[in-house]
Amino acid sequence: MSSVQANIFARAFSGFVGGLNNVGTVLIFALVVMINLDVFSRFLFNAPIDGVTELVELSIVAIVFLQLPDAIRAGRLTRSDGLYCRIQKSHPRLGSAMGAFFDLAGAVFFITIIMGSVPRFVDAWERSYFAGNKGIFVVPVWPVRLILVIGAMTVVLVFLSFTYKHVVALFNKSGATS
User: Fold this and answer.
1) 103 lies in a domain?
2) pLDDT tens digits along 98-134
3) Beta-bridge partners for 132
4) Residue 175 forms part of a structural domain
């Protein structure tokens, strides 16, 4: 793959990750509206909106996996990296090796999540699993499980791209990542 093709792919992937994040943001806004409507409906009319609890439960999982790839890519995921940053500055090669190991470990962790989630997604799709109470409110579970799989796969790709950058830096003269 040429550097131009790699750059196009990197921009497209970055746009995809940003798009997932934007969908998660819209979902948060929709939840805020829905919860407020439910609260006002309960308070003013003593009539709660059916299904709000189920939608909130499912949406939280979807939001996490929609926004996680962008949080990792942008370095906004909560972590303790004080010692790692010091090592990266004082011993760039060691820091790159550690970074490659940590990012590869993150990719492996999310691969295990995918391995556990794909069968659950397929099961929910094939058996038409729903959340809620029949006759009152039901919502299919498979879309959230699909979002979980797509989000986890995207996280794996983000971690693998970081691992690649660390490995390249490891064999650079300076050993520093760019």
Assistant:
1) yes
2) 999 999 999 999 999 999 999 999 999 999 999 999 9
3) 138
4) no
**Tokens at residue 53, please?**
């609890």
> What is the distance between the alpha carbons of residues 83 and 105, in angstroms, rounded to a whole number?
18
Separation CA 176–CA 169 (nearest Å) = 5
In the structure encoding, which two tokens stand for residue 16, read together? 């995809």
Residue 46: what residue type?
A: N
Strand blocks (E) in the chain: 130-133, 137-140
Q: Would you say residue 176 lies in a domain?
A: no
| Helices (H), ranges, 74-141 | 82-90, 92-127
Q: Are 169 and 32 in contact (CB under 8 A)?
A: no
As a whole number of angstroms, the distance between CA 150 and CA 66 comes to 8
Neighbours of 28 (CB within 10 A): 15
Domains of the chain: total? 1
Quote the pTM value: 0.91
